[in-house]
Amino acid sequence: MAGRPREFDRELALEKARDAFWERGYEGVAMSDLVAALGIASARIYAAFGSKEQLFREAIELYVAGEGGFATRALVHEATARGAIERMLREAVLLYTRSGRPHGCMVVTAATNCSSQNDAVIVWLGEFRRARTKSIIDRLRLALKDGELKAGTDVAALGDVYATLLHGLSVQARDGVGKARLLAMIAPAMAALELAGQG
Q1: Could you report the per-residue pLDDT of 150-178, keeping only the tens digit for each?
Q2: Per-residue pLDDT tens for 29-39?
Q3: Nearest residue to 135 via CA among 108, 156, 107
């Protein structure tokens, strides 16, 4: 008697897809790669997720809701902007340099350059990155309002500094710069915020 077909675990399949896209980028992962990584036929992948692009979007959302959500958690839970920014940078380094896992930020590295037929993916990821920049600026704006920063501090410029640094950490980690070196960068990076502080 033939055995029953193995039950499809959608969440596990999504986790495997996330890791494949994180490691090789959107265009670097072909449908044949997804079939191999997920261990299911392409027809089942299409039935479960609709398309490669939709699977990628869900994989990004899984990343952002989980380990990739470290910046949101830091900005929301820390009592001070200084604590939030420092924690965000530290946790970025720890995530982006983990042994045995893809290096860098999935949102930054998965689709920086794609063919024109995938413009929608590039635009969508750009929206994610701009939203992260806005969240940093919003946190600094709150710090200004609360008196943590000096009156007249250009919170947009300061926020852009830390967003650029956050995204740059991803590139450095992807290029093989080690955890210790990236962690050592945080102290001098905090100097701009300390200068803007009230003392």
Answers
A1: 999 999 999 999 999 999 999 999 999 99
A2: 999 999 999 99
A3: 156
Q: What is the CA radius of gyration of the chain?
A: 20
Q: Which residues contact 122 (CB under 8 A, 6 or more apart)?
A: 111, 112, 113, 114
Distance CA 1, CA 17 (A): 33
3-state secondary structure 9-45: CHHHHHHHHHHHHHHHCCCCCCHHHHHHHHCCCHHHH
**Assessment of whether the complete model's pTM goes beyond 0.70:** yes
- Is the CA virtual torsion 83, 73, 52, 8 positive or negative? positive
CA distances from 45 to 9, 17, 59, 162 (A): 11, 10, 13, 38
Please say whether the dihedral angle defined by the alpha carbons of residues 126, 127, 132 and 138, taken in this order, is positive or negative. Answer: positive
**Domains of the chain listed by start with CATH number:** 10-51 (1.10.10.60), 66-196 (1.10.357.10)
